[in-house]
Amino acid sequence: MTPREPGSRPAPREADPHRPAEESTAGDGRAVVASAAERLAQELAGTFSAETVREVLEASYDDLAARARVSTFFPLLAERFARQRLTALARVEAGVGGVPVVLFLCVHNAGRSQMALGWLGHLARGRAIAWSGGSEPGPEVNPSAVAAMAEVGIDIAGEFPKPWTEEVVRAADVVVTMGCGDACPLFPGKRYEDWELTDPAGRSVEETRPIRDEIGRRVQALLESLGIPAAP
Length: 232
Prior knowledge:
The chain is an alpha/beta fold. Helices cover 45% and strands 9% of the residues. Strands 2-1-3-4 form a 4-stranded parallel β-sheet. The chain starts with 20 loop residues before the first helix and ends in a 7-residue tail after the last helix.
């Protein structure tokens, strides 16, 4: 049975005439996005229409292009972001299940939430999925957070700040908030945890290490609460 299309789909954004051509198109980015849309549509055939896939991908591209500092990888990042959003839509609209999903939210999606995402992926080893987002995504992941995580063998250098979206929040089994306050989305019946953690923004790698370790301990406890023993 083919799942119904989501009731409200992200509308493609109109081009901003004031945005420099490099930012609005990222060179041949649109052509690459069109190719990615075809690829995603084939992957998700029978779940979403090609039109829905294209709309989500274009909206994801515009969301990232409006915030990110370097445009070179927009198409690739937009494809990753769109795949996450479509996976979330499938869980919400089509009832497609799977392993538990934990969503980590902070303000800029550049430090705490990215380290938590890295820890969960490392400790869960596929038995749970981590997503992350921000209420006001920054231009890049905090370099101190990237370096601190690399010290414990976890690579988050390929991650990127992105906004939270309604379908992603609705699809999560657990939502962990980190300092975003009222800006974080609240859906009745959803399991929430609020973690009070120091923001690593503007801090050195040395100052970031204790934050990294505390996040690791909390992620391990969260996995145990989900019945998932942390991998050694």
